[in-house]
Amino acid sequence: MAPWNNGGHPQGCPAPEEQEGLGLLRQALGFLLPEQQAQTAAQTLQDTFGSLAGVFRAPREELVRAAGIDQRTARYLEVTLKLAQACLEDQAAGMLRIFDTRSRVDAFRPKFLGRKTEAVCLMLLDGRGRLRYNDILLEGSASEVPIYVRKIIRLCIDYQVQQAVLAHNHPSGNPLPSRSDLLSTCQIILALESIDARLVDHIIFSEDDYFSFAESGMLRSLVDKQLSLHREAEQAARQLHEEFQRQMG
C-alpha cells in the first residue's frame, strides 16, 4: 500500500484538484497538438513547474524548452490565461458591494494573476461600498509614491468617492510590508485626508498569500498616529498664531 502524504493522498498520486488541472491543461493543448503529444506535454509541464499556476506563470521560452512545444502553442497558453483573468475581472466588477477584506481580495486578485513584475492597483468605492473603479495605476516599484499619489487624488475627485483601497504585489513571494510600504501608506493616508477621503485598506499580494493592513490592525495604528501628529501640528499652529498676535500688540 502506498504511503500517504499530509494532504490525505497516496505519495506520488496527485490531489483531485491537481488531476483536474492536468486534465484541463491536456484538453487545452489538444486543440493544437496531437492527443498523445498533448498528454505528454501536459504531464511534462506539470512535473517541471509543479502546478497549473506554475505553468501559467512560466515565461514562454521556458514552456517551449521544457515541453518541446512551439511558440504558437506557448502563446495559446498565455492567451488562455488572459481570458481567465478577464473573466474573473468581469465577475469582480459585477459585485454590488465590497464590504470586507475577503471581497477586496477577490476583486483585486485577478489584476495580479500571473504577473511577474510589481504593480500598484487602486479600487474606489462609493459611500455604500459599491465598486466604482478598479484598475492598475502603474507597473513598477510601489515605492515610487509621488508618481501615483496624484493619480489617486485625481481619480477620487473625478469619481466623487470618499473610500479608496490600494493594493500591490511582491513578486518575491513574501507579502509582509516593507519599510517603504509603511511610509507610502502613511503618505497616502495624509493625501486622502486632504480631500476628506480615507484609505480603507492596503493589501499586499504574493503568489498565493496576501497581507491586509486593515485586517492586521496596522492601518488603524497608522491612522491613529497620523491623527495624533495632525493634532500636535494644529496645536503648534495655534500657539504660533497667538505668539504672533502678542508680538504685533
Please tag this protein with its features:
single chain; 249 residues; alpha+beta; 5-stranded mixed sheet; 58% helix; 14% strand; elongated; disordered N terminus
How is this structure best described in words?
The protein has 249 residues and is of the alpha+beta class. The chain has 10 helices and 5 strands. Strand 1 and strand 2 form a beta hairpin. The termini are far apart.
Output the radius of gyration: 24 Å
Structural class: alpha+beta
- The residue-averaged pLDDT reads 82
The CA-CA distance between the termini, in Å, is 96 Å
Overall geometry: elongated
Poorly predicted ranges:
1-11
What is the H/E order? HHHHHHEEHEHEEHH
**What is the count of β-strands?**
5
Residue fraction in strands: 5-15%
Helical stretch tally: 10
**Biggest sheet statistics:** 5 strands, mixed
Strand order of the largest sheet: 2-1-3-4-5
Percent of residues in helices comes to 55-70%
Quick structural gist:
The protein is of the alpha+beta class. The protein is built from 10 helices and 5 strands.
Which secondary structure elements does this structure contain, and how are they paired or packed?
Elements (H helix, E strand, L loop, with lengths): L15 H15 L4 H15 L2 H6 L2 H8 L3 H23 L7 H12 L6 E7 L5 E9 L5 H15 L3 E7 L9 H15 L4 E8 L4 E3 H4 L1 H31 L1
Parallel strand pairs: 3-4
Antiparallel strand pairs: 1-2, 1-3, 4-5
Helix pairs in contact: 1-2, 4-5, 5-6, 7-8, 8-10
